[in-house]
User: What shape does this take?
Amino acid sequence: MKYYRELQRILPAGLALVAIAAFAGSQQPADTANVENAATQRLEASHHDLTEDDFPDSAADRYTRLTELDYRKVADELGVEVAAIKALAKIEAGNAGFVAPGKPIINFDLTVFRQMLRRSGISLAEARRKAPVAFAGVNVRRYGSYGAAQHARLRSASAVSRDVAYKSTFWGMFQIGGFNYRQCDCSSVFEFAKLMSQSEAMQLELFARFIRANNLVRYVRARNWYAFAKAYNGGRVVKGYAARMAREYARFKR
Assistant: This one.
């Protein structure tokens, strides 16, 4: 699809996950950090997992697990089977959504960061001076874990431009690029990051917004795993992803 091809020109083929042409969208100033649109306000007001009362065992559960109700809620919103949503989450999400409570799993992408800096008219030489950690490799030894190292890179990049840094990062279980914030019905990348930081259930909701915005729900309804995997992942991984989705769907459907 055209949004995959657009990002292919920027990223190595293996990094073109959840990619769309919204990468080239206009920059939002940092003072939009607390802006929330009406859709997000309604979602937060109605979402079942955003209060402590919904977690009788531990409030931290919101960061460590998806419940049957989470899957059913999103399936109902999209008009698809619960088994289909579970299959997509199993294959596309991979890891847990958080490295620590309130700190979502992220992947800061230096290739995207460089490209967006150029488009923003920001000097790469100056950026390297201000953000050496962002331009260095992932330093697990220094920061203790891959997740912590990636957050260190994001913090470093934010010293150059918080807006560009957040947009150059892939967020949450489904690794949705920050430059896709509009495709997730968010008013700014900062609103997008705030929602990504709330719960695994909210990360699933953002994934639902993303596939709905890009007309991918039709493939889920039809259980056309090949078409979904091709649109969502692209590249040479399509057959493998599609086969795994089909197997997981069959398992959850039983």
